[in-house]
Amino acid sequence: MAVDPSVRIDIAAEFTGKKAFKQADTSTAQLTKNVKNLAKTFGVAFSTAKVLAYAKASIRAAAADQKAQQQLALALKNVGLERDAATAEGYIQRIEKEFGIVDDKLRPAYVRLAIATRNTNETQRLMGIAMDISANTGRDLEAVTSALSKAYLGNNTTLGKLGVGISKADLATKSFQDITDQLAVTFAGAAKSSASTFAGSIDKLAIASNNAKEIIGTSLIGALQSLGENDSMATLSSDIEGAAKSLANFVDSVVYLKEQIKSIPGAGIFGYLFSGVTDLLGRFSPQRLSELIKAIKGFQGMGNVAMTGGSNMDTQKYLAEQKKIADAKLKADKDASAKKALADKLAAAKKLKADKEAAANLAKLSQAAALFDLDRIQIEAALKGKINEEEKTRLLLMQAVLEEDASTAENLAKKLADIQKINFQIAADLATISLTKDPFMTWAGSLSLALVELGKYNKVLADVPNLVPGVNYNPKQNADRNYDDKVAAVTATIEALAEADQMPETNNIPTPATTTNNPTPSNDLYGFSLPDYLRSGMNFAGGAYTSPATAPAPITVIVEGSVLDGDDFTEKVNMAFLNAQRKGLTRSPAGAIATP
Amino acid sequence: MPAQVKGGLALRKALKKFTPDLAKETQAEMASLLKPIATKAKGFIPRQAPLSGWGKASGNGKFPIWDGSAARSGVGYKTTPSKVNRAGFRALARIQNASASGAIYETAGRVNTSGREQAKMREVVIPTYRRDTGAGEYRYMTSTNKKYGKSNNPEAGSIFVQAINQYGRIVDANDQTGRGRRSRKMKGRAIFRAWAEDGGKTNAAVLKAIEVSRDKFNKAVGYN
Known about the structure:
The complex is a heterodimer. Chain A is mostly helical. Chain A has 23 helices and three strands. Chain A has a two-stranded antiparallel sheet. In chain A, helix 2 runs parallel beside helix 4. By secondary structure, chain B is of the alpha+beta class. Chain B has seven helices and six strands, in the order αααββαββαββαα. In chain B, strands 1-2 form a two-stranded antiparallel sheet. Chain B has a two-stranded antiparallel sheet with strand order 3-4. In chain B, strands 5-6 form a two-stranded antiparallel ribbon. In chain B, helix 1 packs across helix 2, helix 1 crosses helix 7 and helix 2 packs across helix 6. The interface between A and B is large, with 31 and 48 residues.
């Protein structure tokens, strides 16, 4: 079973050469075709044969057309329609062009209907119906007209066999007029529709080509008859070949003349001759043309023909003098142009050199002048000093402005703006900080007072015997350790001291619930803490605390500028404090509210 | 285009004439190389019908009925020279998918990935005439162009290819590179897929086997 090559994988194939023959054939055919095309391009090799063939075909077509016209006229004459022969021919020509149906088909059909009807109007009506039926059904026009003509004469059989939608009953009962009216309605516009299609257009084109061929053929027949001086067509065939050969000679002559004229010096002068005698060349042979060329060449060889009148020698002298003058002028112009170009070049080089020197001098002077520019000197000196970033940026910006360095100046200006913005923000923050109250302001004095008060109790505690260091007071252990007496002794001592120092009332003094030899009292369980204890040395009036007279007043410090570190801050505060003291200023601002 | 050899046919004739044993040995060697490819290709063909209705007898009987066993057994190899093809080549060996249904499975969708285009239908108008209704016409659509599909289902081709694609995609076995148009004739689901997956090793081995047999023949007859 043969396997489809499309589902096969060939392995290790070997070329056996069958295709080589085919390729050789193809190549040969291609070569032949190319040679033909080449010959067509040159228009020489095949012109004779083509012209001859076309002339023959044209004459044949014209003769056939004349024959058909004569037959139509004769047929019409025989049926008594002689006077309508011209009308019929015109009708056929119009139908041919309009519907693209060749007259060779139209004339027999028309004759057949005319013979049957013997009426021009009826014939043309039936021709219209027949063309519509033919276009629609695809049947030959001759067959349709034959059926219609038979039906007109009473034989409907052929018409029924056309298959045009007419039943046998209709054919049997209806008149021919009714039947044809029905057909006219059924196939209305079919021929026109068919002619408007692409195929119809091609048919029309073919008809136009055939008509052109017939027209040419008719003219050729007349021309050949006149050439042969013979009204008969007997010698026509030989005359056709003679005419074609003359035409071929004409083509050859044109090509030959073209080549020869190219070789003639000053051929342009004789160009008008070529155009003038072109029509005459058709009857010339190459031999006669070569004689003409020789004559033309001989004429040129005699030479020295003055085109503007006067003698030949005068013309030559005049031309020579004119040429000499023109050459001299051209040379002078060239020299002048060269000199001018050289001078321009030198001037340009000189100017360029001078500009360079001027630029170099200017640069040197600017460098020297910079040594005495006080502004620059100051800026340079300032930059070498101890300055902050903002000052440095300002100085660099000034320097850039002086040096007219726009890009650097722009960058520095932007940088300076940023720095100023940051400094402004810092100043605003510091101003806000300075307005807040310092919680450690009074700590130093308070602690000093507390130490004084504690010093009093230290002595009392030191006098208490058998106090165990590191052991806190515990009421549950009092009995064991016999602390009651010791506490009572301490209490008595404190009361004695209170009386002596006029301390506040005992009720107002918080009783130390915790005693310890630990230097730092703790905030423990009994609600007595060091701040409360320290506050005992302060003034209480009805539980409200008031600042003692000896308590230091709060100082509000407003620092202008930047503070670098703690020492700087302390220094500035001290300076402010000393200034305030020296000037006798109050310690609190006017309208300040004392807060606990 | 398979790898071209020169003198392969002459060598085969010479082998058969002068060293029949070597000829058989060469054939066997080539067969042993091609058999794995064919076996692998058989594995790419499903046993059941890719479309359920394909395995049933159709009404008109023109379309081949799917037969998984026949499709598998249709895949094979030949080590005898083929006939001359249209281009004038004869292949010394080949792998083929010989069954009708196997060939359809191999190539469906190779030309038109979405199935064959639906036929361009043409309207036919026949004028009619009835006494009671007068002139009329009878119209119907037809197509006689074999280039197009004529199924009543316009998606039939696409559905068919899609169903087969679920069992195996079309693989291009043409590994040539460079300029020029590639032929679609080296694309398929079974033998071409197996050939593509082989990557040219078998092809090289077959050529090598031919060269080896040539050398053996030359040695046997005393050419070198």
